[in-house]
Write a structure and sequence with these properties.
Structural class: alpha+beta
Shape: globular
Helix content: 10-25%
Order of helices and strands: HEEEHHHEEEHEHHEEEHEHEEEEHEE
Strand order of the largest sheet: 3-2-1-4-5-6
Distance between the termini: 43 Å
Largest sheet: 6 strands, antiparallel
Number of helices: 10
Number of strands: 17
Strand content: 35-45%
Length: about 450
């Protein structure tokens, strides 16, 4: 089914609301067209286009709520979904934390749609793969990658007057390039809303260069080192940390932002003075929908960390009411201030250190300190006197992003990274941090 325009989506949502006999009704309607191409061992393995549209309706009677989903949109099917949600609501137990759906919201449109991204076709996807495959073959390397583009829409409506509709586009590309003997590996990841900001040649060339340079890796003793973390290397670490900015988790003692004896650490200085982080649905590089799809609340631009101090926490409708706070839409992006320095300039300013391309297989060790463990991979290098001296074997690390953000020497230029361990769109810089804790060696490339 094709993506619905605003008029079509509004007509469907209005019908669903009219069918409802409950005290309250919420409707969420979304659809997408996703194209992709996958390649491995220098050959395309799969390519396709998937279209999907789905409607979710939630009906409540008092504090009892039922939810039904459907992907058929004739009148009979829509009414059937509403009746199903009503039947489930009548059978459900009362939810002691039930909150009424919000009233009418003012949604200021954000620039989430790019016509050029929506126009991506199979030929474009094939060319993305061809750049990697052809250049890898020329260098006696083996490439594997995945490119995906999405054109989507979302509509929300409720019986209290909320209505919102917006389209969005995005693309994601990852590529791994290895030497034929498997001793060298390079990797790159790129994300964007506008295809004009994506250069497939640049991304593949980065992975190729790292694969060529990472052969003959030498062992370096585990320990604490100054490290330069590329944005992709920090994205998942920060994703774990920002999931702890939930006010309820903090107030109930389940977060690193919990205060001993009760309460949270809002307003406290927990990070280096250089750390400034905010959310902004209207940011030109990482625009997101102007509403939180879960709560139907409008998003706002908000400071999350200001000059190292915790400036905001996420409050659900229930917890905001309980604590006497104002609830707003949960952020959809995380933006961290950096500088105009390239990663190469950070390297040039480093006497001795380690360059980390990527972190992976990350697991939580201690939620109270956000202590994480994971591995480096796909290009880890030793820096000496401002230059990359040689590749080194990968490490396991035990480190907390909270400690990491207290040990910043320099920040680089922010880059867009789609977070794997969070739902956020990230715009974060490369970071040069001291005393990063490498605990053991790993033979994997």
């Amino acid at each position: 089914m094709k993506n619905l325009n605003q008029e079509e989506a509004q007509r469907i949502c209005a019908k669903v609301l009219a069918y409802s006999k409950g005290d309250e009704c919420e409707v969420k309607l979304n659809g997408s067209r996703k194209g992709n191409i996958r390649y491995a061992r220098n050959s395309v393995s799969t390519a396709g286009l998937v279209e999907d549209t789905q409607l979710s309706v939630a009906v409540s009677f008092g504090k009892k709520q039922g939810v039904a989903t459907i992907n058929e949109f004739d009148d009979k099917s829509l009414e059937k979904a509403v009746r199903r949600a009503e039947d489930l609501a009548r059978l459900a137990p009362e939810n002691p934390e039930f909150m009424s759906t919000p009233g009418k919201q003012a949604f200021k449109a954000s620039a989430t749609f790019s016509a050029s991204t929506a126009a991506i076709d199979p030929e474009f996807r094939a060319q993305v793969a061809a750049y990697s495959i052809e250049n890898s073959r020329k260098n006696q390397l083996v490439a594997a990658g995945f490119f995906a583009d999405t054109t989507a829409f979302e509509a929300i409506a409720n019986s209290n007057g909320v209505w919102g509709y917006q389209q969005d586009t995005s693309l994601d590309f990852t590529v791994t390039v290895r030497t034929e003997d498997g001793r060298g590996s390079g990797w790159a990841k790129r994300s964007a809303g506008d295809v004009a900001k994506f250069d497939p040649r640049e991304a593949s060339n980065v992975a190729i260069e790292k694969a060529l340079r990472s052969v003959e890796a030498k062992a370096l003793e585990p320990g604490r080192y100054t490290v330069i973390l590329e944005p992709a290397a920090t994205s998942d670490l920060l994703g774990y940390m920002f999931s702890g900015f939930d006010a309820r988790q903090a107030d109930e003692g389940r977060s690193f932002l919990s205060k001993k004896g009760g309460g949270n650490r809002l307003g406290e200085k927990l990070f280096d003075q250089q750390v400034n982080v905010w959310a902004d649905p209207w940011d030109k590089d990482v625009a997101v929908l102007p509403w939180d799809s879960n709560s139907m609340l409008a998003r706002e631009r908000m400071d999350i960390i200001k000059n190292g101090r915790v400036s905001a926490l996420d409050y659900s409708l229930f917890w905001a009411k309980k604590q006497g706070k104002r609830a707003v839409g949960q952020p959809g992006n995380i933006i961290m201030a950096g500088s105009n320095k390239s990663t190469a300039e950070l390297i040039a300013n480093t006497k001795k250190g380690v360059l980390v391309t990527r972190t992976w297989y990350i697991r939580m060790v201690d939620p109270q300190s956000v202590l994480l463990t994971g591995l480096t991979r796909d290009g880890t290098f030793y820096i000496e006197n401002g230059k990359i001296k040689h590749p080194i074997k990968n490490f396991r690390f035990n480190e907390s992003p909270v400690s990491m953000l207290n040990n910043i020497d320099e920040l680089g230029r922010p880059e867009i990274v789609a977070g794997d361990e969070s739902s956020y769109q990230l715009l974060i810089p490369a970071m040069k941090v001291r005393d990063f804790n490498f605990t053991s060696l790993s033979d994997a490339v």
